[in-house]
DNA sequence: TGTATTTTTGACAAATTCATTCAAAATAGA
DNA sequence: TCTATTTTGAATGAATTTGTCAAAAATACA
């Protein structure tokens, strides 16, 4: 149940790399990466894709992790969070079938 | 499977009220309400609560509709949309159990 | 038709949020 | 302690959101 931040921090620490190295690859300030790892900032799509490339993990897995983090953030503190997520699922399924 | 906008437009038309009337109750310009009804603008929490009050419907139902709209919007155009919603659900459940 | 009413649109401004940079402070390890 | 790394927060600028307003478009209906 790791967040994107926790996931990439673990990966980075496994390889014993400083923030600097990964940040350079992403072409961002290391302060930003530090914040992303601790969930204080949102990564953008491009950064997630590059992170997957850097750590050689499946891009889609990391994208799901990133997207779901954003969703959780969106409904945080709402009593109706779970219900809203379930209804959103229905809506997405409905839209999908409608588009065919 | 109605969006918040569709829901409140139907309610307003049932009662044959002009945008003006509902907008006045919400204390917003009728242009904004027009856009909310057609999904071009997001309502805020306060407006949703007032709309429920105005139309005398359950506040929670309208909040779920509003929240789920935002979630759908967030994952729109993403292939991983459904998966992300499911993972987000797991995360919310996990956080809930953890907070106890 | 013509007229009144309602709805939609888009330009604009204000307010708010968001991302980024930077340097200093805190932390960790030898 | 010395050094490298990480975290923090203030400052800035960019981007997004929010609302106002007036005109245009659509609608209703005599």
Structural topology:
The structure is a homodimer of 100-residue chains.
Chain A: H1 4-14, H2 19-26, H3 30-37, H4 45-55, H5 59-75, H6 81-99
Helix pairs in contact in A: 2-3, 4-5
The structure holds a DNA duplex (30 and 30 nucleotides).
What can be said about this structure in brief?
The structure is a homodimer of 100-residue chains. The first copy, chain A, has helices at 4-14, 19-26, 30-37, 45-55, 59-75, 81-99.
Report on the structure:
Two copies of one chain form a homodimer. By secondary structure, chain A is mainly α. In chain A, helix 2 packs across helix 3 (30-37) and helix 4 crosses helix 5. The N and C termini of chain A lie far apart (33 Å). Chain A contains six helices and no strands. The first copy, chain A, is 74% helix and 0% strand. The first copy, chain A, has one domain: Orthogonal Bundle (434 Repressor (Amino-terminal Domain)). Chains A and B meet through helix 5 and helix 6 of A and helix 5 and helix 6 of B. The structure holds a DNA duplex (30 and 30 nucleotides).
Cα distance, first to last residue of chain A? 33 Å
Q: Stretches of chain A where pLDDT falls below 50 for ≥5 residues?
A: none
CATH topology of chain A: 434 Repressor (Amino-terminal Domain)
Largest sheet of chain A: none
User: What is the H/E string of chain A?
Assistant: HHHHHH
Largest interface: A-B, 33 and 33 residues
Number of helical stretches of at least 4 residues of chain A: 6
How helical, in percent, are the residues of chain A?
A: over 70%
Q: Radius of gyration of chain A from the CA trace? A: 16 Å
Cα shape of chain A: elongated
Q: What is the CATH homologous superfamily assignment of chain A?
A: lambda repressor-like DNA-binding domains
Overall pLDDT of chain A = 93
Count of distinct strands of chain A: 0
**Under the CATH scheme, which architecture of chain A would be assigned?**
Orthogonal Bundle
Highest-level CATH class of chain A:
Mainly Alpha
